[in-house]
Amino acid sequence: MRAALYRDVGKADEVFHVEEVGRPEPGPGEVLVRVRASGVNPTDYKARSGAVPRPIDGFQIPHHDGAGVIEAVGAGADPGRVGQRVWLLMAAAGRRWGTAAEWTVVPERQAVPLPDGASFELGASLGVPAVTAHHCLFRDGPVGGTTVLVAGGAGAVGHFAIELAKRAGARVVATVSSAEKAALAEEAGADLVVNYRSPGAADQVRAFGAVDRVIEVVRPHGTIVTYAAEPADPQLPVRACMTANLTLEFVLLYGVPREAVERAAADITAALAAGELTGLPVRKFPLDDIAAAHDAAEAGAVGKVIVTP
User: Fold this and answer.
1) Which residues form the domain of 158?
2) Collapsed DSSP state (helix, strand, coil) of residue 163
3) Are residues 42 and 106 both part of a single domain?
4) Residue of 189, 122, 123 whose CA lies nearest to 150
5) Which helix (H) or strand (E) holds 306?
6) CA end-to-end span of the chain, whole Å?
7) Which residues fall within 8 angstroms of residue 113, CB to CB, at 6 or more apart?
8) How many CB atoms lie within 10 A of CB 94?
9) Domain total of the chain
10) 230 phi, psi to nearest 5 deg
11) Are 121 and 139 within one domain?
């Protein structure tokens, strides 16, 4: 099969190769998926660049997320799933077989049924962003009747956080950095969209009312959940946080309990089937242009970057 891979970390155009490699076979409890779309996330290009180095087993095919069709199953997996459309998550977590290839193998539970009405591009946009959004929203219980602030409402995690929060009955205020991104957050259903670069942005948020949960200022006894890290650690106003009795929580999807991930996947699939999750604008790249795809994602492309094996 044709696959994009790297053997050393570094810049995309220096380490990526598109090669013929042996097609993997599904082991016990695994499924073989013909990949139709492969999603690029920050975790993918950070691993490839060496910013968050991970062991490489000879070579690494990148990308955790994707969508396609199950073509074969290993021992113990359900043979009735052959031919099923699926969306994939965490394909490259501790494994060399990411989704930037014509085929991939994943544990059966990481191949989630993709409703017929959902495109492969939307399926490949879910995975890490949608499961992260779900866990950040619901790890402390229901959000119905609460007010949620979503920082970065036009990013992939922010987009799904808005839609999942609205589906659950929350009021949502989202922050963005441009008019283009504001339009995306409004389309996702945010009740209020604030450009955080505009004068009086904080006053606009305060006027919306007390905020119960931030998916990144917040009412006393509220919860701030953060799911991303920058090279420089932020400085915390410890006294202000103490005075407000805030809860600060941190999420890294690789360490989230399996039960929580599976619950998120089930809820996300139900939302898809109900037509309540939508995709961001897509920029598609063929497999041979995977370096350009990573460069676009790293440069902050608005929307979702998809590679099509």
Assistant:
1) 129-254
2) helix
3) yes
4) 189
5) strand 304-308
6) 10
7) 84, 85, 86, 269
8) 9
9) 2
10) -105, 165
11) no
**CA dist., res. 95 & res. 242, Å (int):** 41
What is the pLDDT confidence band of residue 221, given thresholds at 50, 70 and 90?
low
Q: Are residues 114 and 199 in the same domain?
A: no
Angle at 86 between CA 83 and CA 89, to 5 degrees: 145
What is the per-residue pLDDT for 217?
A: 43
Long-range contact set of residues 110-114: C-beta below 8 Å, sequence gap at least 24: 111/31, 111/33, 111/70, 111/81, 111/84, 111/86, 111/87, 112/86, 112/87, 112/88, 112/265, 112/268, 112/269, 113/84, 113/85, 113/86, 113/269, 114/67, 114/85, 114/86, 114/87, 114/269, 114/272
CATH of the domain at 206: 3.40.50.720
197 Rama class: left (phi>0) / alpha (psi -120 to 50) / beta: alpha
Q: Does the residue 264 lie in any domain? A: no
| pLDDT mean over 297-304 | 95
**Same domain for 113 and 52:** yes
Looking at residue 288, what DSSP letter applies? Answer: G
How many C-beta neighbours within 10 Å does residue 71 have?
A: 15
- Regarding whether 167 and 117 lie in a shared domain, the answer is no
CA–CA separation, 7 vs 19, rounded Å?
A: 12
Task: Find all residues with CB under 8 Å of 284, minimum gap 6, and list them.
Answer: 121, 306, 307, 308
Residue 167's CB: how many other CB atoms inside 10 A?
A: 18
Residues 157, 103 within the same domain: no
Judge whether 304 lies within some domain: yes
Answer whether residue 188 is part of any domain.
yes
Question: Mean pLDDT, to the nearest integer, of 138-148?
Answer: 94
Asked whether residue 272 is assigned to any structural domain, the reply reads no
